Amino acid sequence: MHPHRYAVGLAALGVAAGLTFGAAPGYADPAAPGSDDALIGPSAAGPSPDPVPFSVGTAATDTFGGYLPDGIALGVYDVANPVIGRLDPALLSAVQKASEAAAAQGVTVKINSGWRSAGFQQRLFEDGVRTYGSVDAASQFVASPETSMHVQGKAVDVGGPDAAAWMSLNGPRFGLCQVYANELWHYELTADGGGNCPPMRPNAAG
Fold first, then answer.
1. What would the mean pLDDT of 95-105 be, rounded to a whole number?
2. Buried residues in 37-50 as b, exposed as e (16+ CB within 10 A)
3. Is the distance from CB of 82 to CB of 47 less than 8 angstroms?
4. Strand locations in 45-100, DSSP E?
5. pTM, whole model, 2 decimals?
6. Is the separation of the CB atoms in 183 and 198 below 8 Å?
């Protein structure tokens, strides 16, 4: 699910529960003085275990691992942040190489979402059910923790002007393919040795 969608849902949920998501344990305030490429990341010591989990009512325990606020994106070398640092090494290498090639053509590739904790993905899924009215409808836009490639560190959502269009044309030669027809930004390392991508699925449920 695209970060712009889940940030709105989480914000609304947070208001209802009396929580401020930007203040989640272990994460920095993006508006705080000195915040830069390490936005919403762990300490300078590098990736750390998920923040202490907590519960909201009867909702699933949620660590918020992998959360990025709406409008905040990371560079492909921001590995101190677990959103990037916990990606599968092969995927991360491919995304970095693709990003360098894109930069040479004047296109900046940013990451809007990468690795996510299972708890955070569960919250996104539950929020999707509330938004779309049923599990079946929500499954077209957001995967469960058991099936999400983000939880496995094997998917990235790209952002930046022209980034998705560039990746659609050039990503396969780095092994990167758009997986879902309804998610122009979602890429996984699924191309074969010849740079051929499998047929796109219509959505996360298809």
1. 98
2. eebbbbeeeebeeb
3. yes
4. none
5. 0.72
6. no
